[in-house]
Amino acid sequence: MTIVYRKYKPPQDLHLHLHLHLATQSEQSATGGQVPAPRESAETDLTAIRQLISSDLSEPYGIYVYRYFIYQWPHLCFLAFEQNKEVKSELVGAVVCKLATHRDVKLRGYIAMLAVATSHRGKGIATNLVTMAIEAMISGGADEIALETEVDNAAAMRLYENMGFIRSKRMNRYYMNANDAYRLILPINEPSTVRHHVLSEQATEAQNMDLYL
Ligand SMILES: CC(C)(COP(=O)(O)OP(=O)(O)OC[C@H]1O[C@@H](n2cnc3c(N)ncnc32)[C@H](O)[C@@H]1OP(=O)(O)O)[C@@H](O)C(=O)NCCC(=O)NCCS
User: What are the residues facing 98 on neighbouring strands?
Assistant: First the structure.
């Protein structure tokens, strides 16, 4: 089995489409701020990503959630394909991320979605995809990388903690299935600690306990 990794390939008219979309206030309000489909109907990668991820994650994300992340940060979406000589290569893993300013003090990379096909798990595919995403976000200037995962997702917790992520917060009934989430953070640079310092000066002992859980 040969696994080939590559970045998401955006439809050819995506650049023009996003430029027009973001520049036009009326279009933004008409779509409620959602990113619509590009004029070219080449959403092949996106459809495959959605199929792979939606079969695994408990949250039922709509198409606009996928477009929001993948069309705005196409360079932070990495894919794994099983190369097969007889048939077309098949998508077996995907990671979807964003990179944006957080609370005006730091640049936060965010891993929004990650999934590997059941048949291909335990072979290091998620580790490779997350490593590529982290490297790309660090190259883009990320001060820290964050994500949420269900507290009982043993595979994800082990994967991320092996990579140096630390538990920063437990969020009660965070998911639609009423499960709790951990926020995990991978600190990269000094600004990653800013919020913690500010809060620890002001917060009560109880708040601090929650922050460091
Ligand atoms: C979590 C997931 C992406 C891991 O993918 P994967 O390709 O199997 O992961 P890897 O092979 O890179 O394994 C990475 C580490 O995860 C841990 N791991 C993987 N599967 C595990 C399992 N079933 N139980 C416990 N730990 C597990 C292992 O520690 C492994 O490292 P190690 O073998 O060196 O100890 C995959 O199980 C998945 O798609 N799950 C459903 C979707 C999901 O939960 N996504 C994450 C949401 S935040």
Answer: 110
Number of domains within the chain: 1
Most distant CA atoms of the chain, gap in Å? 62
The per-residue pLDDT for 32 is 56
pLDDT score recorded for residue 9? 86
In contact, 107 and 101? CB cutoff 8 Å:
yes
Name the residue of 116, 119, 157, 182 whose CB sits within 8 Å of the most ligand 1 atoms, as the mutation to test its pocket.
116
What span, in angstroms and rounded, lies between the C-alpha atoms of 46 and 79?
11
- Tell me the pLDDT tens digit for each residue of 169-198: 999 999 988 899 999 999 999 888 765 544
Please, is 185 exposed, middle or buried when counting C-beta atoms within 10 Å of its C-beta (0-12, 13-18, 19+)? buried
Domain of 171, in residue numbers: 2-212
CATH number at residue 31: 3.40.630.30
- Ligand 1 pocket, Cβ-based, cut-off 6 angstroms: 56-57, 114-116, 121-127, 147, 149, 153-156, 158-159, 162
The pLDDT value given to residue 197:
46
Closest CA to 192 of 111, 138, 135: 138
Q: Is the pLDDT of residue 63 over 70?
A: yes
